[in-house]
Amino acid sequence: MLLDGKVALITGASRGIGRAIALSLSAAGAAVAVNYAGNDAAAEAVRSEIIKNGGRAIIIKADVSDAAAVDAMIEKVIAEYGTIDILINNAGITKDTIVARMKQQDWTAVINTNLSGVFNCCKPAAKLMMKKRAGKIVNMASVVGLTGNIGQANYAAAKAGVIGFTKSLARELAARGITVNAVAPGFISTDMTAVLSDKARENILNGIPLKKMGSPEDVADAVLFLVSGRADYITGQVINVDGGMVM
Ligand code: NAP
Predict the structure, then answer these.
(1) Could you report the per-residue pLDDT of 52-82, keeping only the tens digit for each?
(2) Which of 25, 31, 161, 230 has its CA 20 to 30 A from that of 220?
(3) How far apart are the CA of 19 and the centre of ligand 1, in A?
(4) 3-state helix, strand, coil in the chain (%, to 5)
(5) pLDDT at 151
């Protein structure tokens, strides 16, 4: 299998896109660590499903915006599996409103989770991968980080930051044989987009050439490719998985 013998840590893997990535990397042979923020039942369900399918999985509750909690999470993965070969920074939140109404805490929470969370996880994982002279990192961006969006200045700023961070880290780690890429989903069916009104949904769908929402599995397929040996010569890229929304 593509990922036989590999160890993957996926943040925000109890639900949505992260869950699909955990299932997909596990089906490809990786032992996975499923990180989440607070939804114990959802994380446990992902672990059970992986084990039922014959895979290996552990769950780790840790807030990615808390650097000390992330360091403890990395230690747990190493204690269980001995190493980390693949890191997927997927955990993310939204706190949408226009800038004129945005509370300071809505700005800070989104930047801390969606951008600083990526830094907090990459730093210890990169140190480990540099010693091994191998590794794959994929960061979850968004097409909104490329285009901007009304009501999402905090989220778009964080995702644009993730793209700049990804390219910088890709340059820093390339000489050690480590690739760092970003995936930018468009409009994907998860809890995050379930809160949108019918009107908002219709407006977004009108701007998608393929005329449908994406599934978490559509995003997981791109991630699986990027962390496999089939993508060894790809680094510092942003792959849009968006039905043609941004081209
Ligand atoms: P989701 O369904 O809302 O799931 C979010 C996941 O992140 C959950 O597993 C949640 O854990 C976890 N999480 C939230 N805050 C966390 C924290 N501080 N520390 C650790 N884990 C945390 O989201 P999604 O739609 O799958 O989105 C996944 C990623 O794709 C995000 O980065 C998002 O920005 C990006 N994205 C999504 C779309 C879309 O259309 N859905 C489009 C573009 C980009 P709990 O279950 O414990 O709460």
Answers:
(1) 999 999 999 999 999 999 999 999 999 999 9
(2) 161
(3) 10
(4) 50, 15, 30
(5) 96
Give Cα 91 distance to the centre of its chain. 6
Residue carrying the six token digits 């039942």:
41
Question: How many CB atoms are closer than 10 A to CB 107?
Answer: 17
What is residue 93's predicted lDDT score, i.e. its pLDDT? 98
Residues annotated as catalytic are: 155
Task: Please work out whether the CB of residue 73 comes within 6 Å of at least one atom of ligand 1.
Answer: no
Q: Is the pLDDT of residue 1 over 90?
A: no
Of 103-112, 114-123, 194-203, 222-231, where does mean pLDDT reach its minimum?
194-203
Token reading at 228? 């496999």
For the chain, the residue count is 247
- 159 and 182 Cβ atoms separated by less than 8 Å: no
Q: Is pTM, for the whole model, over 0.85?
A: yes
Domains, the chain, ordered by start? 7-189+216-240 (3.40.50.720)
Report which secondary-structure segment, H or E, holds 34.
strand 31-36
Q: Report the alpha-carbon distance of residue 89 to residue 218 in Å, rounded.
A: 17
Confidence class for position 132, pLDDT limits 50, 70, 90: very high
Instruction: Report whether residue 12 contacts ligand 1, using a CB cutoff of 6 Å.
Output: yes
Which of ligand 1's atoms lies nearest the C-alpha of 114? 32
